[in-house]
Amino acid sequence: MKYKRTIIKYLVPFIMLFFFVRNIILVETHHLDSWMGGGMRMFGKIDKMLYRVSGFTVEHNNKIYFVNLRNIEALEDIYVESKILPSEHRLESILKDIKSYTWCYNEEMDAITIKSDKACSEEVKSENIKNMQVYRVHYNNEKNRIKLELINDVENL
Amino acid sequence: MLKTYNIKSTLEKLKEGFSINEKDLLLLVLKMVLIILLILMKDNTVLAILVPVIVVPGLLFNRIASNKYFWLLLSLFSVIPYLILDLVGYVPNHKHIFAYVILAITLMLFFSEKNSILNNLRVQAKYIIGLCFLFAVAGKFLAPEFVDGSFFKFTNTIDPRFYGFTSFVADVDPLLLKENEINMQNLLSTNNTELFFDVNGAEGLSTIGLIISYWTIFIEGMIAITFCLPATTLLSKYRNVFLIAFILTTYPIATVYGFAIILATLGFIQATKPNKLTKYAMFYLLVFILLPLIKIPFIRVISAIF
């Protein structure tokens, strides 16, 4: 009876501890956003999913284009998923999803966009989709400058 | 004379606390949690539709609110999205706390004797607050940018929730801060990964960044220590002082409604005593009621007046 009471008393604290340890491990090994996953590490690191940029590169007409997923409304769930945990496994699976959509080159914007009714000069072949990339915001404390820094990059095989 | 006596007696009564039936107190606690779930548990279409359907009867009928199977159902609806699928969608830390609180209530309703449910829940609330802050402090030591003050320098100039504070304390033109926000949004939407920008107004924030960093570590550390220590220790008796200091110094600046309201509720639970609403419990209850006011940008309003 006493044993059971102890388990009940410490079950929730134990679950909390589990999520905290898992958070530390996943942050170090799989680039998990340290604010996520129940680690309670909010207001600690600058790098969090809200300040991450996720997208993929496309080779078109001998030029490399970066397609920022933030600008593709239809892929909002994928965009969020890729920023929370940009592990190689997840990015590979996201890249497969991305390739299942039809992409095209928009001459007016000089950008790659998802195929819609809007202007689309040329369709992009899925083999031209090259890499899935996730960046974090890097803050240079001395120069007070903010730029992007690559976290993970997965190649289309 | 009579008026002075009345004020004195009211203050004394406030200091001693108010008597309340333990059963009513438990119902109050359960309904506070249900209100939070009704307001904030709408992360996806399923929860947005189903949570009100489940929660509203609990708010209306006391027998439902204290039914253990009702809380078991709520546990399922919180554990699956917030603890099992937490790495797929956006699940902020306070949603994890929602799941911990619901789980704790369910466990206490299932396994505690009827007259000790709330008492056991007080212990759970104390542990949840203590561990939450312990992890938060540990996390801050794991982040070099927090320890050297650059985290707050960045946050105060980039996160719009802090602009009122930054323009007030560091005398930075709000328009310059607004420009930072626009530049940041452009950077996050860019198709040019070489893009960069210089942050406005960060120069004068080094000292204030360090002060905020070390104040945060101190206050969160003290909350962690005082809430994790056994209630019988001397330091633990001051736990509410530190938690109240944290609430008063944090939420007028960092308006994080979801975390603040669950913290006020947990604070309320652990601050009650058997059949008694203590002065600390009343403070947390007041915070719970007045929290929607944090949406008012107080510092901006004050700086606009003066």
Keyword list:
heterodimer, A: 157 residues, alpha+beta, four-stranded antiparallel sheet, 3 helices, B: 306 residues, mainly alpha, globular
What does this entry look like structurally?
The complex is a heterodimer of chains A (157) and B (306). Chain A has 157 residues and is α+β, with helices and mostly antiparallel strands. Chain A contains 3 helices and 7 strands; from the N terminus they run αββααβββββ. Chain A has helices spanning 2-30, 76-84, 88-99, and strands at 52-60, 63-68, 103-106, 111-114, 122-124, 129-140, 145-155. In chain A, strand 1 and strand 2 form a beta hairpin. Chain B is an all-alpha fold. Chain B is 72% helix and 2% strand. Chain B is built from 16 helices and 3 strands. Chain B has helices spanning 2-16, 22-40, 45-60, 62-65, 68-84, 93-111, 117-141, 144-147, 150-158, 163-169, 174-189, 206-228, 239-250, 257-271, 279-290, 298-305; strands spanning 18-19, 196-198, 276-277. A two-stranded antiparallel sheet of chain B has the order 1-3. In chain B, helix 6 packs parallel to helix 14 (257-271) and helix 9 packs across helix 12. Chain B is globular and about 60 Å long. The mean pLDDT of chain B is 92. Strand 7 (145-155) of chain A pairs antiparallel with strand 2 of chain B, so a sheet runs across the interface.
